[in-house]
């Protein structure tokens, strides 16, 4: 059958998004719901109201689960109630934290926390839900990487290490699972106006130098990521595998 616009539709699909309460995770959740998916919103804090309201406005459906992703040891068992209830078609590993401190003074506990939330939990989520997808012979996994999956960044060594690892894991899993009809890809957002980048936007000098390098001439908004997520979650991207797609207003091309 030749291409049809319905290839972008997510009707009948179930999508799990981590870090769905704010920023990019909220925008991707709402985007996937707009494309027809039922959403499993995974958050940390008990106030996901804004995301829930936005999905309800679209006549979308959701269920919310609160899981602390820094508790990697118990993550598999914490995911079990979701796996018992749902067949997950789309997994978006979006939750992530950043700790800004030069390498020489970087606190080891913070280093470990960043790696736990940004990569160790991502591996457990991919493995646990990936096994269900292997059994179902289909699935889409979208990991949220970063420009710091390619570049060194400034004063964020744990974050940079974790995001390089996210890109590596994406490619490793794509190699193993493409033959199971599971497409594993990543989105690398540029500089997006969310809580994650608040400190940068409050620093007049950094903020100005960042803006000067963005060919699009503006910071990204969380909504700028939604269309790319829908594409990578949909049948339209069935032959896209192991790709890290930058959505950065042209930053990396400069
Ligand atoms: P954000 O608003 O700070 O979102 C981070 C999300 O992660 C929050 O919803 C938070 O949930 C969740 N989270 C943090 N710790 C958690 C934990 N222990 N357990 C469960 N969830 C936890 O920032 P954002 O910019 O949207 O970040 C989303 C992703 O995009 C991150 O992976 C980030 O690294 C990546 N990214 C962002 C940018 C950018 O410019 N903003 C650029 C590149 C990549 P709670 O609020 O419920 O704690």
Structural key phrases:
single chain; 254 residues; alpha/beta; Rossmann fold; seven-stranded parallel sheet; 15% strand; globular; binds NADP nicotinamide-adenine-dinucleotide phosphate; Sc_DH/Rdtase_CS; EC 1.1.1.127; 2-deoxy-D-gluc_3_DH; 2-deoxy-D-gluconate 3-dehydrogenase activity; NAD binding
Write up this protein:
The chain is of the alpha/beta class. The protein has eight helices and seven strands, in the order βαβαβαβαβαβαααβ. A seven-stranded parallel beta sheet has the order 3-2-1-4-5-6-7, with helices on both faces. β5, α5 and β6 form a beta-alpha-beta unit. α1 packs across α8, α3 runs parallel beside α4 and α4 packs parallel to α5. The longest helix has 29 residues. The protein starts with 13 loop residues before the first strand and ends in a 7-residue tail after the last strand. The mean pLDDT is 97.
Number of helices: 8
Low-confidence stretches: none
What's the order of the H and E elements? Answer: EHEHEHEHEHEHHHE
List the strand order in the largest sheet: 3-2-1-4-5-6-7
Number of strands: 7
For this structure, the CATH topology is Rossmann fold
**Mean model confidence by pLDDT:** 97
Outline the secondary-structure elements.
Elements lengths: L13 E5 L4 H12 L3 E6 L5 H9 L4 E5 L8 H11 L4 E4 L14 H29 L2 E6 L12 H21 L4 E8 L8 H5 L1 H10 L12 H8 L10 E4 L7
Parallel strand pairs: 1-2, 1-4, 2-3, 4-5, 5-6, 6-7
The structure holds NADP nicotinamide-adenine-dinucleotide phosphate.
């Amino acid at each position: 059958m030749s291409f049809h616009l319905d290839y972008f539709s997510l009707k009948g699909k179930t999508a799990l998004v981590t870090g769905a309460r704010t920023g990019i995770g909220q925008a991707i959740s709402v985007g996937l719901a707009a494309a027809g998916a039922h959403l499993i919103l995974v958050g940390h804090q008990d106030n996901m109201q804004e995301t829930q309201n936005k999905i309800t406005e679209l006549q979308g459906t959701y269920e919310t689960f609160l899981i602390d992703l820094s508790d990697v040891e118990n993550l598999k068992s914490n995911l079990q109630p979701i796996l018992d209830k749902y067949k997950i078609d789309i997994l978006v590993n979006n939750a992530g934290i950043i700790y800004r401190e030069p390498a020489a003074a970087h606190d080891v506990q913070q280093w470990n926390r960043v790696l736990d939330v940004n990569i160790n939990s991502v591996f457990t989520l991919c493995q646990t839900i990936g096994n269900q997808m292997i059994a179902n012979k289909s699935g889409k996994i979208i990991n949220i990487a970063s420009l710091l999956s390619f570049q060194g960044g400034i004063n964020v060594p744990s974050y940079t290490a974790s995001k390089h690892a996210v890109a590596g894991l994406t490619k490793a899993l794509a190699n193993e699972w493409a033959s199971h009809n599971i497409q594993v890809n990543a989105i690398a957002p540029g500089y997006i106006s969310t809580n994650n980048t608040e400190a940068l936007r409050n620093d007049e000098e950094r903020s100005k130098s960042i803006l000067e390098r963005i060919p699009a001439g503006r910071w990204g908004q969380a909504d700028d990521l939604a269309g790319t997520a829908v594409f990578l979650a949909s049948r339209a991207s069935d032959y896209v595998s192991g790709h890290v797609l930058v959505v950065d207003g042209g930053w990396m091309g400069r």
